[in-house]
Design brief:
Elements lengths: L10 H27 L1 H20 L4 E4 L2 E4 L5 E2 L7 H13 L5 H32 L4 H11 L1 H15 L4 H7 L1
Antiparallel strand pairs: 1-2, 2-3
Helix pairs in contact: 1-3, 2-4, 3-4, 3-6, 4-5, 4-6
């Protein structure tokens, strides 16, 4: 006699539950381990500032950089603090890719790696934008800081999520949810 366990959850419900659990685990891990430890945040902030400063220097800007601070000489500069280095958004991106059905493990790891690198590069670009905005339009610093994520990170993440849903092996989430 053979027993089959039948999955009574729709693929959409299963995806939402898995994504919710991953989201909760990520934020608990971030708030209680990664943020207090600080090493990953420090690495992302310091390397982002160093790369942004190096690129601006290559393009002829006279740069001042110390620790998490990047400035074009003669300006106040910008400090990249924890929470502004892209780590939280990387966690959300990873949660979606991990919870969406389909794709081999290798395909998933490659897509995650490529997306994380792309988000890191986007953050370097964002840090450069901050330094340049303080130089050219210092009165709009708050707006640039507040809205830069909407114009830089979110389109990238949404595009990557869309690509993942179309390239993963299973279109089960949408096809079975419609039936």
């Amino acid at each position: 006699m053979e027993f089959k366990i039948q999955n009574t959850l729709s693929p959409l419900t299963r995806f939402l539950l898995i994504a919710g659990v991953i989201y909760i685990i990520w934020y608990l891990m971030y708030d209680y381990y990664l943020l207090p430890d600080g090493r990953l945040d420090a690495f992302l902030s310091l390397s982002g500032v160093n790369l942004a400063g190096g690129i601006l220097n290559i393009f002829g800007w006279d740069i001042y950089s110390e620790s998490r601070v990047l400035a074009i000489t003669g300006t106040n500069g910008v400090e990249i603090q924890n929470g502004c280095n892209g780590l939280e958004l990387i966690g959300l991106y990873m949660g979606f890719i991990l919870s969406y059905p389909g794709g081999t493990i290798l395909k998933r790891v490659m897509f995650l790696s490529g997306g994380i690198i792309l988000l890191f590069v986007a953050n370097v670009f964002r840090i450069m934008l901050f330094a340049l905005s303080i130089y050219y339009v210092p009165t709009f610093w708050e707006q640039v800081h507040t809205y830069s994520s909407y114009f830089i990170f979110y389109p990238i993440v949404l595009t990557l999520w869309y690509i993942w849903t179309t390239m993963s092996d299973d279109d089960l989430l949408l096809t079975l949810a419609i039936k």
